[in-house]
Design goal:
The structure is a homodimer of 295-residue chains.
Chain A lengths: L6 H13 L2 H8 L3 H15 L15 H28 L4 E7 L1 H6 L1 H11 L3 E7 L2 H9 L5 E5 L7 E16 L10 E2 L8 E3 L12 H5 L3 E2 L3 H9 L4 E5 L10 E8 L3 E9 L6 H16 L3
Parallel strand pairs in A: 1-2, 1-3, 5-9, 6-7, 6-8
Antiparallel strand pairs in A: 3-10, 4-8, 4-9, 4-10
Chain B binds a DNA duplex (30 and 30 nucleotides) through helix 3.
Chain lengths: 295, 295
DNA sequence: GCAGCATGGTAAGGCTTCCTGATCATTTTA
DNA sequence: TAAAATGATCAGGAAGCCTTACCATGCTGC
């Protein structure tokens, strides 16, 4: 029913007008002149009307051709725009990545990663959100973000996990606390200390140190409140090293040597769904960045 | 540089999504299923990114594919719109004709022509202007209108003339005028009559009756003023029959038999420039209409 | 007036593209 | 577990498209 207007012949028509002749158009399109003639003839046959005046030496548009010209030009421009955009998207020169991470990663790891990423891929827009680890998993599962960087408590259905970092658990206390000078600690040394639980405390579960949790009366999820408590000397807590904010001069981090505990931080994304080009670039970038510096 | 996105593969992608699978798309596009697979693969290679998820049984878009889909849909829709409009234009189902005629033709001939034209070509827009014959020629030459219907004083460079009607010259006078009862007149019978010249009087030039013009003191170009003068009995005039308005009960038209004069009314258009499809349809229609009824 | 150069159109051959039909591997369904 | 449906792959052939060579025509400068 509808004739299929191929783009190449349309380009020929535009080139003939813009370059002022069949020969010039042929040169411009890197074709031979007969190719131009035939493309035009084929197009005219499809439309059922001549586009160019015949007989006179010069290449002139018929009124029908004049009517068609701007529409052809628009269509070709539209094609080129789609083609260019798609190529930019595919080659990581454009696009958008939405990432969610736990706060510790967002503040301690992501800045370095993103700083180099935006240099390598200046066209890609980045959207970084942070939240506790279960929220991160949920956002990835729901498709709100394509990538997550977090620790998984357990393998979750529908999520793929790529390990990135081992994040060692330690004890955090004020610098004048008796434990502050230790190079490492056995969990029994914490017995009797006022332990403040936080969102990462469940990392102790399943280890001998778990019984410490049972004797803890204080739970604080907010990190700012927690550090304020610690600085006030109200008690001690356990944290992964990344979550420990080194800029607090009066707080000390002492690794827990027995049991040696860690959280495994990794990249998560939905299983079975491939990433957008931009997200794939980010994923590769994250992995290269963290393996270069040693996990 | 830019990959050439052919429309057929894009249609394949749309069909796969809309019909829900490669086989369904193949049926819908009247192609074999491998053709669809190959078209998609080729398109993916051009873009450098997969559009469909591989491995799982179903046909699902990658995020990149989801990004592309609406753009592909737009581009294909744009193509179809251009194709449909161009075809409508070419096949006289749409378009526009601008015509200029002399007033007599506009009021006496065009109504019948246009009445049947709009039935045959309901999609074509018509723009009819009238003016004296030299204005008509000018408008055609300047390209303001594509077609003119008028009489040419002389063959004009750049204009093509297709004769349509012979329009006989006669004398117009009031019904109580001594000449009103004649069936025909010899020019000498007009001698001594007060002759009012008008825009068509130069048709007498070059004939024996030309000397009547020299003895005429009154020239009136406006047809309404002229008929008012005639009805007032101020004088007589000469007019082509078509220009004589029969609805004036008190005026009579008496053909001039010696010399027998006529103006040749015809279609004019620019030489060497082909007509738009709509104008060509109009031209054919006018010629068929007037030859059917005898010139 | 005629050679020379430009225009665009035409014809025959070859290369590339694209489609088909048969077949395969995998997943879903009964 | 057999059957059906999915999409992928491959070889062969048809069609489209491009190229080289040649033709017809119109303009230009001597």
């Amino acid at each position: 029913m509808l004739p299929e207007l191929k783009l190449q012949p349309l380009r020929c028509v535009l080139a003939i007008i813009d370059q002022g002749g069949f020969h010039a158009a042929a040169r411009h399109l890197h074709r031979s002149q007969p190719a131009i003639s035939m493309a035009v003839r084929d197009l005219e046959e499809r439309l059922g009307q001549p586009l160019f005046e015949k007989g006179n030496g010069k290449a002139t548009l018929t009124p029908f051709g004049q009517w068609c010209l701007p529409r052809f030009r628009e269509l070709v421009a539209h094609h080129d725009r789609v083609s260019r955009d798609a190529l930019a998207m595919a080659s990581h020169q454009a696009g958008r990545v939405d990432i969610a991470t736990v706060p510790s990663v967002a503040s301690r790891v992501m800045p370095g990663i993103l700083a180099s990423f935006v240099i390598d891929f200046p066209g890609i827009e980045i959207n970084l959100q942070d939240g506790h680890s279960e929220l991160v998993s949920q956002m990835v599962l729901a498709g709100e973000v394509e990538l997550g960087i977090t620790s998984l408590w357990q393998p979750e259905e529908g999520l793929e996990f790529i390990p990135l970092l081992h994040d060692e658990i330690g004890v955090v206390c004020r610098d004048d606390h008796p434990l502050a000078g230790h190079a490492r600690l056995h969990w029994r040394e914490l017995a009797g200390q006022p332990l403040i639980r936080n969102g990462t405390s469940r990392l102790l579960e399943g280890s001998p140190a778990a019984e410490l949790l049972e004797r803890s009366a204080l739970y604080i999820s907010n990190m700012i409140s927690l550090t304020a408590m610690l600085e006030a000397g109200i008690g001690i807590t356990t944290l992964p090293r990344l979550a420990f904010q080194e800029e607090h001069a009066r707080l000390r981090f002492v690794p827990l040597s027995a049991p040696r505990l860690e959280r495994r931080i990794g990249l998560i994304c939905r299983a079975g769904v491939s990433l957008s080009p931009a997200a794939a670039a980010m994923q590769r970038h994250v992995m290269a960045y963290l393996t270069d510096r040693g996990a």
